[in-house]
Target: glutaminase
Amino acid sequence: MPLRLRHPRSLTAPRRKAGILPSLEDLLFYTIAEGQEKIPAHKFTTALKATGLRTGDPRLKECMEMLKVTLKTTSDGALDRHLFKKCVQSNIVLLTQAFRKKFVIPDFQSFCAHIDDLYENAKNLSGGQVADYIPQLARFSPDLWAVALCTVDGQRHTVGDTKVPFCLQSCVKPLKYAIAVHDHGTEYVHRFIGKEPSGLRFNKLFLNEDDKPHNPMVNAGAIVCTSLIKVMNFMNKLAGNEYVGFSNATFQSERESGDRNFAIGYYLKEKKCFPEGTDMTSILDFYFQLCSIEVTCESASVMAATLANGGFCPITGERVLSPEAVRNTLSLMHSCGMYDFSGQFAFHVGLPAKSGVAGGILLVVPNVMGIMCWSPPLDKLGNSVRGIQFCTDLVSLCNFHNYDNLRHFAKKLDPRREGGDQRVKSVINLLFAAYTGDVSALRRFALSSMDMEQRDYDSRTALHVAAAEGHTEVVRFLLEACKVNPVPRDRWGNTPMDEAVHFGHHDVVTILRDYHNQYSPQDSAAEKQNAEKNLDGML
Ligand code: GLU
Model:
């Protein structure tokens, strides 16, 4: 008989007795309580904020709602171990990551202290002119100055006038280009628009040798790009549903003062630059409207973070843009985003960015964070004076320049966590969420197109782990929403059903059996194809 490896637990190892090992919730409690019997609510929220998470983060909704309800039942506004557990258990994966310093900027507080220093340094600058071609821009005080950032893990920091609404103006150009590529693909969009820096002012009446606008970051390219997009709810999704408004007064003024843009529009029309059937004047209206979209520094930092995060909004987990759209956008922001300073900015700062006439600079540190700087006084080339100073200082301090050497350049700060093997990390996160029964983390993983059938070194899947731990809700979610294979075998030949039986989880056994009875193997290929479609509805 061939030798067969058996599951070690089924031979000699004693079963794990519940309650002997401290749970993750308990570990978190001890970390935050620092030796006390109870955690006052404000101590918990202060500790949370130090990690960079906000109490209003949509990913912490369940925890915060439970906290509110639970606090009403206490006399002293403090949580003992039991109450604490009740509050944190539904978001335990995110919270554990935060407190174990597993976010992209592990030492967030000291990084923020650096950001505040850079902010103060730029605040002292007094040069530049506030744009005055329309009254809505001219009214801004030259003293306004704000920086907001959001990392790819949703860590937030803001300093200065970060809640004052202002218009995106040209900062909207990369966003609408991204939407156009997301909707139509690169090839179609670039039938109408080039990819080269123009070497000319942003509103020049000029086309390239093929009679196309040079790129989507100059007005001509952005006007053509406007004719390729339709939907506006993208903006809300990019900003994780934070503030996105519209200044009708700015729109009217832009239209009234927009002779140059009308001239460009007629020229583009003459040269047949638009898709067939386009009504040029209504496209121009839409162009002016897009320039007049209002954001705050805070909400725009989430938009930038969505670009930094490959098109996934960090605070909602929603996939807003395709990776192709984001990569194209970052490339063109890098070469063409900063008016006639683009080459120098790429040289000195080495990061994709886009500025606008209202004084905004949307800056992306790919795979790390999005930043919005805002201050109305502009230099001669139209870029925010304080914003440029901040971006330059940031890259002198941290090794964020695209061509900074990450291995040998020890003189600059590297606030990032050490990178590891992404795949290993993703399996660990998946199995960890299944182990702890954190369904909301699993939902986010599924939404971000994670392979929910991934296996670890022992060929164990999330379904094995959830079945062994008796997490019925997780088992249901994996089977019904994700349509994972219900009978995967680990390296010892065990299925999730074997696990559920072994550990005496009768409710899991029932779910697996019922599911198995409905599930016929012939249908499985077609079933799997439908899984992604069904997922949306079920989440
Ligand atoms: N509304 C301005 C224009 O299209 C935008 C200017 C800008 O932010 O670059 O001319």
